Amino acid sequence: MHKIIQILLSIISVSLLFDSLYASSSDPAPLILSCGSTGGGKDADGRKWDSDSKYFTSNNSTSEKATYQDPSLPSDVPYMSARIFTSEATYKLPVKSGNRYWVRLHFYPSTYGSLDPADAYFSVVAGSITLLKNFSTSVTAQALTQAYLVKEYSLAPLESDFVNITFAPSDKHSGAYAFVNGIELIPIPDLFDSALMVGFSDQPVDAKAANLQTMYRLNVGGQYIPPNNDSGALTRTWYDDTPYLYGAVAGVTNEADKKVEIQYNDLPDYVAPVDVYRTARSMGYDKNLNRNYNLTWQFQVDANFTYLVRMHFCDYFCTKVNQRVFNIYINNQVAQEAADVIGWASEQGVPVYKDYAIFVSDGKGDEQVTIMMNPSVTADPPPEYYDALLNGLEIFKISDAAENLAGPNPEPSEMLIKAEAEAAAKASEAKAFTSSTASNVKLISGAAGGAAAFGALAAICITVYVKKKRVPGTESHTTSWLPISGFSHTAGSKSHASAASHLSSEAQCLSRRFSLYEIKQATKNFNESYVIGVGGFGKVYKGVIDKTMKVAIKRSNPSSEQGVNEFQTEVEMLSKLRHKHLVSLIGYCEEDNEMCLVYDYMARGTMREHIYKGNNTPLSWKQRLEICIGAARGLHYLHTGARYTIIHRDVKTTNILLDENWVAKVSDFGLSKTGPNMDKGHVSTVVKGSFGYLDPEYFRRQQLTEKSDVYSFGVVLFEVLCARPALNPSLPKEQVSLADWALHCQRKGILEDIIDPQLKGKINPECLKKFAETAEKCLSEHGLERPSMGDVLWNLEFALQMQDNGDGSGHSSRRAGSNVSEEVAPRLDLNSLSIGSEHELDQDSDDMNAVFSQIVNPKGR
Ligand SMILES: *[C@@H]1O[C@H](CO)[C@@H](O)[C@H](O)[C@H]1NC(C)=O
Ligand SMILES: *[C@@H]1O[C@H](CO)[C@@H](O)[C@H](O)[C@H]1NC(C)=O
Ligand SMILES: *[C@@H]1O[C@H](CO)[C@@H](O)[C@H](O)[C@H]1NC(C)=O
Ligand SMILES: *[C@@H]1O[C@H](CO)[C@@H](O)[C@H](O)[C@H]1NC(C)=O
Ligand SMILES: *[C@@H]1O[C@H](CO)[C@@H](O)[C@H](O)[C@H]1NC(C)=O
Ligand SMILES: *[C@@H]1O[C@H](CO)[C@@H](O)[C@H](O)[C@H]1NC(C)=O
Ligand SMILES: *[C@@H]1O[C@H](CO)[C@@H](O)[C@H](O)[C@H]1NC(C)=O
Ligand SMILES: *[C@@H]1O[C@H](CO)[C@@H](O)[C@H](O)[C@H]1NC(C)=O
Ligand SMILES: *[C@@H]1O[C@H](CO)[C@@H](O)[C@H](O)[C@H]1NC(C)=O
């Protein structure tokens, strides 16, 4: 068999030789290999992966399937199958001589067969370049809190028709083995040229023939760009830069006006996609502030390597030279004095990039690349604006003299270790509590995270958190008691408050800061008659700001520590999120021990009070459907629209609010969870949320995924249909929990018996069927069986269409979330309005323990 393969390979080799001799103009084809799989398959992006079997030779290799599928994996292919090597083995891959390539290696550390994931220690050599050495996938994944790892390298043009990629288990670790889940070999244009060595401008570094590893690739001031949306089919991933910002002032993000067209002129468009050049971060509008701070990013890197720093610029605002002139520093050395993007590009909206090289020597502690920018004020005449600009940033590691690119395994930060110990302790507490299912509690280390942060220490947020020092001259003018959020494993626990630091500078930038005086003016000195709700956080007041703007003001109860954390989380979350179906945070106030959040006023209060609580005319079925669709859109955005998956954690009908036009808005992010690299991941965490809506799987396994929100939303859907609370302890035992009871009735086919009497006969049967099936699927026992919020949304829209068609109303094409107030105008009772109200729950809490076991142990499902 192996002989045959070898013969085949030599035939291929000969034919490729012919190809390269006689058809050298033909484009080399990319190789995308799913290792250890027999047939290959398609990934979530629709890319086709082939089996690796015809490209490698070894006597001691096996192909295995992973035994556990982490919910953060983007797709089965290539992660669920692996090629395992117990001795050295080589892939022999055809390349086009003289062409540069990406090599991407995909690793999913999991249990394969009887092998311990902790024993995977190996090296990888491509051609003559060492890519990885003593590489432990499990140590690395833990330190980066990622479920899977993607490493990207760029191999210099080879003078050969093959490249050998050799995997060798470490001989320093007994029982070591090597594995790989996926290999990509993608031909790319010559992306690199020469770069100026910072500090030695007369010594250009020639990167044309360099072998590099991608460390960071950021769309500065913009959003995550997936491989499919990259330019030139280079399938690069571009990340948001916010986790890497350093210091108290983070500048502002902005986007090119629609009228400005980005013109590449002489620059090939594969250099970076338009979205990179259309967005940027600049210093802000305050000239004096800008003079006195540096816009700063910081990156963790390995010592003893030279790094190529590529900065992408495109000024879509200025039109003339000497309008925006700035200095660039790398590791405190001048990289570029008096940078003037218009000067370089000669025109508005024309991209340019600049390459700099910096050697990072071995110092104490962690090695970093720090990039700083400040306005050049010494120019004569001085520039029109005191500002700096950056659109995109890439950092590559250049191989050293020994043709090595491998660095040491990253070490988990102290904070991560501590947070994990805490989570484990909490889990065992909870385990004792829910003893019946204790054996199922499985803590996966940290937040299993997501997409590729190229060896680049994506745990950077944690590191920044731990190390955050004051940069001289950037003393923030807001003395705040707020801890930074970034990465909170344990929001709501003590450790957080003790590690108090600052509200992230980004949040400060994005939201307005109110003085206590303004707040007191707005609420007539917190007059009780302005109270519109009471929550765990404190009281909610209505008020008027700027004479005309109606707002809702959440005032924290200073004695509640929970409140502090939730306040902080909420500012951090909401200040970055803007969406039609999310309640907008207008600003915050922190002064004299008062902390307040200022929101858009939601004139019609909570969804619940329009269904069964409160004295409102119950909503029509169609209105309810449209509100559900709006809320689903908001949640779908939280799960997928932002760079990081955000899990709401407390989805319920009192957290869905309605504005004067009946547009549903999701509110109350006090319990939300995210992680800097938690791309569709899950977090091990202390169980929070509201009884009656809690995902049983989350409860048992302490593992939070976005599917926990889907579960809670399923309860909301039944609540809307049946017009009763999620928990009603006064009912007979089997009916207490709406989730259990509705599922029971749905499965018995008697759901119609329990729907809201007001709706009887008014729901199109097809629509009801679709709606109930969707809700039922949301309540599936296992997260994996539940639909995504996107699917839920689609199904609800479909249900709405069925209702429209059945209605005979004729207006079937109207979109969800549109203005429905022309249809029905229920009586509005201002006194019953509340925002984020939780008092109903408090009333019921006496009976909570009685129903507790029912939720935890959902028998009869
Ligand atoms: C596999 O082992 C056989 C005999 O043990 C040997 O002849 C053959 O060359 C080996 N193949 C490889 C690829 O090492
Ligand atoms: C395969 O493994 C066995 C035992 O682990 C070893 O003796 C043998 O040399 C290996 N074969 C190759 C080709 O490395
Ligand atoms: C690749 O490895 C094979 C042996 O496995 C060796 O004969 C060949 O010379 C290597 N090719 C290159 C380009 O290193
Ligand atoms: C990717 O490109 C498609 C098509 O242009 C667009 O619809 C989509 O929003 C883009 N996705 C992101 C995350 O930019
Ligand atoms: C960096 O190089 C110095 C001098 O060669 C060496 O002493 C040190 O151990 C190296 N550091 C790392 C992290 O490899
Ligand atoms: C900005 O950084 C440069 C380089 O480290 C430093 O010389 C300068 O003083 C800094 N400016 C301010 C205002 O901190
Ligand atoms: C290999 O990596 C492990 C884990 O990071 C480390 O403890 C060990 O010292 C490394 N061994 C060598 C030889 O570098
Ligand atoms: C609160 O407002 C009401 C009505 O505007 C007023 O009668 C009352 O005196 C105010 N209470 C306080 C404590 O100012
Ligand atoms: C909704 O309808 C009302 C009354 O017809 C109108 O005043 C309001 O502007 C509409 N809002 C939107 C968002 O269309």
Automatic annotation (TrEMBL):
Pfam family, one: PK_Tyr_Ser-Thr
GO molecular function: ATP binding; protein serine/threonine kinase activity; transmembrane receptor protein tyrosine kinase activity
Highest taxon, organism lineage: Eukaryota
EC top class, as a word: transferase
Keyword entries, A-Z: ATP-binding, Cell membrane, Fertilization, Glycoprotein, Kinase, Membrane, Nucleotide-binding, Serine/threonine-protein kinase, Signal, Transferase, Transmembrane, Transmembrane helix
Membrane protein topology class: Single-pass type I membrane protein
Name assigned to this protein: non-specific serine/threonine protein kinase
Organism: Rhodamnia argentea
Gene: LOC115743942
